[in-house]
Amino acid sequence: MSSRSTLTTWSLEQTSPGDLLPAAAPEGDDVRIVRAEVPSPEFSRFLYASVGGDILWIDRLSWSYARWQEHLRRPGVETWVAYDRGTPAGYVELEPQDGGAVEIVYFGLIPAFRGRRIGGHLLSYGTARAWDLAERWPALPPTKRVWLHTCSRDSEHALANYQRRGFRLFDTEVTEEADVVAPGPWPGALPPAS
């Protein structure tokens, strides 16, 4: 018999670019945020597994190369990557939806880069790019809403980070889910001591 636990999912939104409350860029670090303009299933899977390995991101682990490629080539799907001194530190994935909505489908940092003020900056930057998505994709309607969801399996700071950036809660769902084992990143991989 598998064990089960309660999972709380919070859905949050912004309905105007003025809702965004940007975080300051980290001081003293050479942090850059760059769009990955060439669809690369290998790179996107690396980011997904590296960021989500310890917080139970498992839904895309079974995707084939072709499935990744199909997803990444959809008009308006964008991946924005934060680099700390040339090393990938985390990413934001944007996906346009009907009616001018843009979902922040994935956002997070590789464990070794958490707690260094990169996350708030990356989320601010990614949210701003969601608001101006149609400027880069003229066939898309202007963005009217940016939304995302987070859950109790994500970082304990995730919900507060979204709210500090101006996202407002619009739905909470509580379900019972089968427990799963975090797939990684791999045994013994721990962030450096601060």
UniProtKB/TrEMBL annotation:
Gene3D superfamilies: 3.40.630.30. Residues 1-24 are annotated as: Disordered. Residues 1-17 have a biased composition (Polar residues). Signal peptide: none annotated. Residues 31-194 form the N-acetyltransferase domain. CDD domains: NAT_SF. This is GNAT family N-acetyltransferase.
